[in-house]
Design goal:
mainly alpha; flat
């Protein structure tokens, strides 16, 4: 789907390199403070979730195989959404990730654009194949 090994390598490894630059964003004091607010909010709602990812795991662990959404999962999702909004945990983490990643992205914008194009082109080819 990628058209060449070089294209696949670019599409696969460029994001990996970027993650190495900003992977420890969650350790920033602003992010840890927002995470603490999120955790406190979820604890007040009766859930043991340090992070939004923990809330996803709680929902997965209590998932019902029926087609309907169980009331407990709906309550958890409502608490999670409210706590994310009040704590600003997701926005704070994204902002820190972008702050750390920005200089790395600025060093070679043509490479970043090319990687995005490779992924876009591969997606189009995959859609064409699946439509046949």
């Amino acid at each position: 789907m990628y058209g060449s090994v070089d294209n696949w390598l670019l599409a696969f490894y460029l994001p990996q390199d970027l993650n190495l630059v900003a992977a420890d964003s969650y350790l920033d004091p602003r992010v840890t403070a927002a995470s603490a607010r999120y955790h406190g909010c979820m604890a007040e709602a009766g859930y043991r979730a340090q992070t939004p990812r923990d809330a996803v795991e709680l929902a997965r662990d209590s998932a019902d195989t029926a087609d309907r959404v169980p009331a407990g999962e709906l309550a958890l999702a409502t608490a999670d959404a409210g706590c994310q909004r009040r704590s600003g945990v997701v926005e704070t983490w994204y902002a820190e990730f972008e702050r750390r990643a920005g200089p790395w992205l600025d060093r070679d914008p043509a490479l970043v654009i090319r990687a995005a194009e490779v992924v876009h082109e591969a997606t189009l080819r995959a859609r064409n194949v699946s439509a046949q």
